[in-house]
Amino acid sequence: KGDIQLPTNLGLGFTIGKTDKWLAGADIQWQQWEKYSYFGANDSLKNLMRVSVGGSYTPSYSTVSGYWQRITYRGGLRYTNSYLELRGERINEFGISIGIGLPLPRTRSTINLAAEFGTRGTTNNNLIKDNFVKFTLGLSIFERWFIVRKYD
User: Fold this and answer.
1) Is the pTM of this model over 0.85?
2) Among residues 3, 47, 69, 143, which is most buried (max CB within 10 A)?
């Protein structure tokens, strides 16, 4: 029996944009891992800081003549100063993401494709540095049968 003290987590974010045209946003997150404890024991974790920025652009959301004009293009960057410190080196992470939203015919639903390219870690003090690629496939469903009727 014992207690686990989870870290305090604070975040702040904002977005600005023009409806159905463009969107830009940023997010910052801080976690106080130095105060983390489990069953009365502390760990050697450091405080985490994560910063992310990104945006999207749709050339012409409502055009009927050009499919390529209705595609949503997305991109973003993120940097994390992680809570891990090994051999005196912080294990940081950086990533760049790109993606597109492909509209399905005669609907507002989209198929979303994305790729993220990033790096994690360092080679200082005989540590390991990872380079990674992550692919994502998603489906956003926006259909009338998901909308609740106000009147019967």
Assistant:
1) no
2) 47
